[in-house]
């Protein structure tokens, strides 16, 4: 007994510091009056799941907690997890809260029952609206409530959705209502976003707090994504369907999420320009021609999907897509027109619709809503206007008022309140009045203490063969303002992981299939033309940046007269400056000041040819390739851009910045060489690098290996192409014209020579698919073979400046030929010669 008492005493001594730490964190934690809170339950006592979490969390020392927070933040930066606020052009780093939202298993079960019922109800309503139309004919839904919505697409009426579902993915924003129960705040049926960010939140936090995550028995989200992926595959009409995720492109606010989902689920990330319609099928443009696409998971709003039948100004969609849907040629998830169910005008009708269609009451309530398109509801809202939050009936914004948040009539100036009253009276169909509610709160970490903050939880449901499957977790957004009534990531909100806590041990799961079910594959499929285009230009931008940096370093390192500040070899320096000017790296006015030339060429972002501008261009291009680049490769580009943007004070600083950036470029080339799969994507990246290096090397040779070149000129050329050591190992004399020309242009064994680049280009082009099946050599290969023949048979003595200029033009034509042949430009985009025997 004494031994047991000693052991208990030891455990108590360990627990006491943790308990004191929790008490210190919670000292100022006071839920807002009348607002439900996740940590403190209705009776004023902490919920058990949070008590368990904080007791385990408090066993970490303050230093360990900060270190793990730093690990999470560093992962977000290094992985480039980002989003873009509306109206902004620059990405923001993803703002992840360091504490998760916790929900116990029993409560989660009740919540999911309400979500499943709601998803089933909305699916049935959509099927009727675009099918028989009984609900409107019988007056269950006023016709004006549907006809007034821009998301109701008459072009889709009568189309039975291929795959059998209007909604493949549904989401609901929920929070605790005044009674402490979960309430639905809004429905997401158009193209629900956030699942990819929820996945990224889970990856970051589960790694930062691995032991805590495991000990808390957190339900895994991988089975949900697996079920969703299998459901999309099952909707197609062949065993090995090709699935694409349609994104608006890299300027979308949530492009990172699109890339994350595509990579995680194994889908092709495509834009509208990547797709073409032929007959009753949609095809993806690849470097091997058109390939059939079976399923399209869209992240583009319905109205932009088909410029032929919907918004004619859209550049995001696929002409003819709606007609393909009529013919059953492609599964689109979610079906176009499904966004009509997001209209707040319909909220007031859902309880009666649920009783009519499902013969049961709604299991999860939503905010009391009055659609002002009905006379009685409009009169009710106008009579008590100051007691309502006014929202748009069909859109997030309120007509006539700025922003995307609810308008609180009671807080408006008298003139605006009367203007709102007049607008509702004149066109009530566009407005709804909603009960005034404030969002419930959850604990967040705030400078070493815990504080309550309003939050919204988005829960996801996927339609599968077994019914609706709910993600055990979700996408949580947290407001910084204590009295927030709406939360947008663009307003400075934070995101949080969502942990559903099980009562038993949760087995580790993965999205990877069982070993015995794996079908061996070595090639993932042909790369889409747009991705190949971006890879090609990523290589070119980085190679241009390297050539510019080498010129900058040579110019900054040139000796100068300490009194006059002029260089001792003005002719050579003049040639370097001339190249930088021709490349758009510097201005004409700066040429009289070498220090200004190198500063502009290094980091003047307004000069399109500066090193910083070129790296920024590479960064923008790489953003479109997030699903194809490793985190290390992405990080190299980010760090290089950040380094070049830092201010430098003198020539030594310029040289140092240039050398470090050149090292980073070498790192990227090494990562691409060693880590990228040797499929078509890698080849196009390499082709971009090789053709740009060949062009730049010929330009260097024209400038510094001309007929009357001095030894200084030739020495600069050897430095620019990194051949000083090679030259000295071969020749005991100083730089001479013929040997330098041979080494730089003709030597097939020199990895920096033009001949080496052209030989590599020939190898890559020869391994790409032929797009015309007539047995004739195609133009890119014809130009590459001709260039290699010329370089193989030429002699250094015959490489005059005019000859080099002709070679430069041939290389430029070769680069253009690759683009015209393989990338989506003009008449070459559809490549109708490949429409036979589509795979």
Automatic annotation (TrEMBL):
It comes from the Bacteria. Pfam families: Alpha-E (PF04168), CP_ATPgrasp_2 (PF14403). Residues 1-20 are annotated as: Disordered. Gene3D superfamilies: 3.40.50.11290. SUPFAM superfamilies: Glutathione synthetase ATP-binding domain-like (SSF56059). Residues 528-823 form the DUF403 domain. Residues 100-479 form the Circularly permuted ATP-grasp type domain. InterPro entries: ATP-dep_Glu-Cys_Ligase-2, CP_ATPgrasp_2, DUF403. PANTHER family: BLR2978 PROTEIN (PTHR34595:SF2), BLR5612 PROTEIN (PTHR34595). This is Uncharacterized conserved protein, circularly permuted ATPgrasp superfamily. It comes from Bradyrhizobium erythrophlei.
């Amino acid at each position: 007994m004494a031994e047991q008492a000693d052991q208990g005493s030891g455990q108590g001594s360990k627990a006491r510091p943790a308990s004191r730490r929790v008490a210190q964190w919670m000292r100022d934690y006071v839920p807002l009056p009348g607002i439900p809170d996740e940590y403190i339950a209705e009776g004023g006592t902490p919920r058990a799941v949070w008590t368990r979490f904080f007791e385990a969390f408090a066993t970490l020392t303050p230093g360990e907690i900060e270190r793990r927070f730093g690990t999470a933040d560093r992962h977000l930066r290094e992985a480039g997890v980002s989003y873009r606020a509306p109206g902004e052009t620059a990405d923001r780093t993803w703002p992840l809260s360091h504490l998760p939202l916790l929900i116990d298993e029993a409560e989660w079960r009740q919540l999911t029952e309400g979500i499943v019922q709601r998803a089933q109800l909305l699916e049935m309503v959509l099927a009727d609206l675009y099918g028989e139309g009984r609900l409107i004919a019988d007056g269950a839904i006023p016709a004006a409530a549907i006809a007034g919505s821009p998301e109701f697409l008459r072009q889709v009426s009568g189309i039975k959705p291929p795959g059998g579902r209007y909604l493949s993915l549904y989401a609901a924003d929920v929070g605790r209502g005044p009674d402490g129960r979960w309430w639905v705040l809004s429905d997401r049926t158009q193209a629900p976003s956030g699942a990819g960010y929820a996945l990224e939140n889970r990856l970051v936090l589960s790694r930062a707090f691995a032991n805590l995550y495991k000990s808390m028995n957190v339900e895994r989200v991988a089975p949900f994504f697996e079920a969703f992926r299998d459901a999309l595959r099952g909707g197609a009409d062949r065993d090995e369907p090709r699935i694409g995720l349609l994104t608006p492109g890299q300027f979308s606010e949530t492009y990172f999420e699109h890339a994350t989902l595509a990579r995680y689920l194994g889908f092709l990330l495509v834009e509208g320009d990547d797709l073409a319609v032929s007959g009753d099928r949609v095809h993806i443009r690849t470097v091997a021609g058109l390939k059939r696409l079976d399923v399209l998971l869209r992240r583009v709003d319905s109205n932009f999907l088909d410029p032929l039948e919907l918004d004619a100004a859209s550049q995001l969609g696929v002409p003819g897509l709606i007609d393909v849907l009529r013919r059953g040629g492609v599964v689109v998830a979610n079906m176009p027109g499904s966004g009509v169910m997001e209209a707040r005008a319909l909220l007031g009708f859902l309880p009666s619709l649920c009783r009519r269609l499902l013969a049961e009451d709604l299991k999860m309530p939503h905010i009391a809503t009055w659609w002002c398109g009905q006379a009685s509801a409009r009169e009710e809202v106008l009579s008590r206007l100051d007691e309502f939050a006014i929202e748009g009936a069909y859109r997030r914004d309120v007509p006539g008022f700025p922003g995307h948040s609810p308008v609180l009539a009671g807080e408006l100036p008298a003139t605006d309140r009367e203007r709102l009253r007049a607008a509702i009276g004149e066109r009530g169909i566009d407005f709804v009045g909603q009960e005034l509610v404030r969002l419930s709160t959850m604990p967040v970490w705030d400078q070493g203490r815990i504080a309550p903050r309003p939050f919204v939880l988005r829960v996801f449901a996927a339609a599968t063969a077994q019914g609706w499957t709910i993600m055990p977790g979700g996408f949580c957004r947290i407001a910084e303002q204590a009295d927030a009534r709406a939360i947008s990531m663009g307003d400075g909100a934070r995101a949080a992981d969502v942990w559903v806590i099980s009562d038993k041990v949760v087995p580790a799961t993965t999205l990877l299939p069982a070993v015995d079910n794996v079908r061996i594959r070595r090639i993932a499929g042909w790369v889409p033309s747009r991705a190949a285009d971006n890879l090609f230009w990523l290589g070119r931008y980085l190679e241009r940046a390297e050539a510019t940096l080498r010129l900058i370093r040579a110019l900054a390192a040139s000796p100068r007269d300490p009194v006059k500040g002029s260089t001792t070899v003005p002719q050579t320096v003049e040639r370097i400056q001339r190249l930088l000017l021709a490349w758009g790296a510097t201005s004409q006015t700066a040429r009289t000041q070498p220090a200004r030339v190198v500063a502009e060429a290094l980091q003047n972002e307004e000069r399109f040819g500066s090193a910083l501008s070129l790296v920024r261009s590479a960064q923008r291009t790489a953003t479109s390739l997030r699903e194809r680049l490793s985190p290390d490769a992405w990080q190299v580009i980010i760090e290089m851009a950040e380094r070049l943007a830092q201010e430098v004070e003198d020539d030594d600083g310029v040289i140092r910045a240039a050398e470090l950036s050149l090292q980073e470029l070498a790192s990227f080339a090494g990562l691409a060489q060693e880590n990228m799969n040797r499929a078509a994507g890698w080849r196009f990246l390499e082709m971009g690098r090789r053709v740009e290096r060949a062009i730049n090397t010929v330009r260097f040779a024209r400038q510094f290996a001309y007929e009357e070149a001095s030894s200084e000129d030739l020495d600069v050329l050897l430095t620019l192409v990194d051949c000083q050591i090679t030259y000295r190992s071969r020749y005991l004399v100083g730089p001479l014209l013929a040997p330098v020309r041979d080494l730089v242009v003709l030597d097939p064994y020199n990895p920096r020579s033009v001949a080496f680049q052209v030989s590599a280009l020939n190898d890559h082009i020869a391994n790409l698919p032929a797009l015309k099946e007539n047995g004739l050599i195609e133009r890119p290969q014809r130009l590459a073979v001709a260039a290699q023949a010329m370089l193989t048979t030429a002699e250094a003595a015959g490489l005059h400046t005019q000859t080099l200029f002709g070679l430069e033009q041939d290389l430029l034509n070769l680069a253009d030929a690759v683009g015209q042949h393989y990338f989506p430009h003009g008449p070459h985009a559809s490549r109708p010669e490949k429409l036979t025997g589509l795979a």
